[in-house]
């Protein structure tokens, strides 16, 4: 597809020159140190063809994008029982808000806010020790991406551990309500390592293919999740994937997507494409400023919005 | 399409026999009096063909479904300036919550919670007197549905006026913040009449066709809104159309939809179908119990979810 | 008492020269127009002697100070049944906050926040028409102060009516919960007139005598309320009389007191004195800046704090 | 004083027979195990005379009553600088609520809610290691009570450590806002030990004498705090000493008081008496059911309310 190459290249050029790039996350020192000049984009189509531009092969900290993979694993482990401990509604609040936990008795609104992802990790710890859970998650992501080089950036993991007071508060608070079964330190050990997984746009786009393809990994034909589960994860990404900026992302981009404070976004055009963008500068809601803009441009040129006529 | 007839008939049969039907809205007497045994469904496809079953031709009070039409008109009137006075994020709160208005200085979260729809009506009143605004809205809906018989149920309008204390509170509160320009009584006069519009499933499905068809009314070829605006209204319906049950609706059904406490839901499968269902009993979030279930069944059988591969 | 004359004169002199006077309430035009240079103080001792200085005889809008008199009347009318409809706890919120009403089902935290005072007026309307209720309240206050000249400033009452959108919102909201029995317009008619009562410091200090004297009006010997009720009203003034600045007032001044946005404060030293101060400029919590400071000075010089050894 | 002996004995007899005794705190196992049949009362008058009845010499866990002593020490250490990190307003919320911390950027409402007491302990840790801080606090309380037998119940301290997830959450949350300078584990080590101090009513009443006597310990003549500071601590106890039941306690009892979930209450009648009551059963706000009732009876018979004429 000649034109998609062109579209992707044009977007990368526009983003390289964009003056307003947002600000990298400041509260995790290794993230604050990343050069905001970076921009990368990678697209994997249903037929396996790939399109990439900019820093598409530079690894970055995927942070909360990892919540998609953790959720997928937890649903595999306990199925719909998970929903007894986590909701499925947009929170209308910031990613690290604790207010709703108090009025809603320790049940997080959805698996993509921090509190929800912490519960997801607690579920995963029902299957093994922290080290094993992280190992298994890494194997899962490597398998999805078909790339054994994917790893955890220990510097980032340690920095999160040292500064993650709000996450400790969330975990302890849920433990008070009985919605965390393991000690906070243990669960957050998994959480911080999961957030510190480093991937490039190309790797991330490949890892997201099963969500575009009804749960099947296109190249291997392996069924990762059922079609119904793939659809539902996409729905959650659409309504909850960008915290209190989810409505805006749906309005502007119109694709299921999950952002991370490292500046990455994984987006899914069901049946068509798995897309990863990365630019470290964030907007005021904590989502990648240029990543969002790049996806908006992409959808404008391709008509891939799920809200457009097929 | 033989099989769609069958699907629709099967759904109507299943819903007729469903034991758990929810409870009709109790706080508006004429709505409380509606027989919960009703169920209707109507589908209009992109090619103009229609499929209907159950009480598809019985008019009911569309209530908040009308917010879609009012929003469309307000965007036509003032364009994206509207978003200076109304947000685009799911609220995470009940349809009539007033809490966020206090912390967010009178700006409602989105145009589909009551407060947001009241601001939308205030915008429409910039163009004429209440009577004219209601008249124009009725003409608009009649034009969309191609049916001059659509009318306002004055009994319902009066009952809302008599019991709508929370709506008065919302309006007065926004007026205190300067986000309501006309007197509350005047704006709510429009609001209560708009909610009291009575339509059948068939009429409603027809009225929603422009949202499935990129903004164009299929039979007349008239452009109601631009493709971009149609897509964006769909996005808002998906993230905000069912109040604090929007995430659940996206998860289970996976279509942009807008519900009303009269038990109606308008849902859109972009490029494929405009769908209306009606059953008066509501679930605990105030959305039609059987209407939601019927749409879940429909999507299961047709694969129309926007989160499925195309 | 020679020295009290001196203390009062010194305070008035200090306040006349104070540079930081706060800002008069801006949202009610006739209040915004009052000269912030004013300061008055009047003290009535248990023996009937009076001490005054500054603008002690200039009438001002008592605003929320009137809530003390309305509460006294409502307790006289329905007794402790009142507490089924109003709480007795500090709100921790601004005087006109609506948030707690939502989570607490329309029951205001206490009778001294706006919502609580509106319920109190609704109770009084159980005994007569709005005009009569206002008439009776005026007679009550005139009797307490021994001064028939006390009146309602109709200009202020009308201005409140025109700008009191938040109060309308509070009233309508409580009506939605069934905690307002009369139409909002009727109840607020009483409320706005009550707030618009104009009194001088001297009149106000006299009117508060029954609260210092165990419920008895010292000069007439009439029992206005029982000793127990007087004590309890004092307790409510201490914990709730200055909205979300009540803790600060108790900390700095240490007397039961009720403030109004007109800049007046009525304070009570049980067994010793009834005190009224007035200065139109408000601090950031909506309480008189210099009025509070003057009372702090007074208590410092007299040792009248209820938290000091007797 | 013959009659006070009689009053105290009568109260103890009435409380021994009271049918509705509330429920001991359930979330700390050693507290849950305490027999709800206990009731004790002890009063120390300004002249040093003591009146006691019931289980007045049985030690119990003073829990949050210790916050009064910790606050006194912290004010001694850093003076009014403390108020840059803790507010002075009633919270209107439960003792362990975290909601206000989010909107108020990690500054607790007052030093008597858990979050505030944790900050107070963090301040004390500016002067020494945890072990020393606890040692000094114990020495302080022993000195106030004139009783070297007072000790920390290590079983209780350990149980709090094991179950205090909400306190960990509060501490971590404030650390995220920079309002906790030491690690949460360290600060809570102090906090849990302080709460686990065991004292009898007689010891507690003696320890509170400086608050009734303008800051001076009556038997030794030592100045513990200035008269102004004593008055202000009393004011804080009145407005904030019973969490979201503070208004009710002021309304019914009318004395500055601080309660603990162990069922103890320390109350102060300035210039007259220091009073301690204990009964393990709590009311729905977490304050001693019979302790409150006993104080209400006491004030009724003695006229000691600070809201009564002197």
How many DSSP helices of chain A?
A: 14
- Report how far the terminal alpha carbons of chain A are from each other: 19 Å
Q: What value does the Rg of chain A take, in angstroms? A: 18 Å
CATH class of the largest domain in chain A: Alpha Beta
The total beta strand count of chain A reads 8
Please name the CATH topology of the largest domain in chain A.
Answer: Beta-lactamase
Helix content of chain A: 40-55%
- Secondary-structure arrangement, i.e. CATH architecture of the largest domain in chain A: 3-Layer(aba) Sandwich
Contiguous low-pLDDT stretches of chain A (5 residues minimum) are none
Largest sheet report of chain A? 5 strands, antiparallel
Averaging pLDDT over every residue of chain A, what do you get?
Answer: 96
By oligomeric state, this entry counts as: homotetramer
Name of the CATH homologous superfamily of the largest domain in chain A: DD-peptidase/beta-lactamase superfamily
- The side-by-side strand order for the widest beta sheet of chain A comes to 2-1-8-7-6
Percent of sequence in beta strands of chain A: 5-15%
The greatest interface here is: A-B, 42 and 42 residues
SS content category of chain A? alpha+beta
Give the overall shape of chain A, derived from the CA principal axes: globular
Subunit structure (chains A, B, C, D): Homotetramer.
Keywords (chains A, B, C, D): Acetylation, Hydrolase
Binding site for substrate (chains A, B, C, D): 64, 114, 160, 167, 191, 243, 261
Organism (chains A, B, C, D): Sphingomonas kyeonggiensis
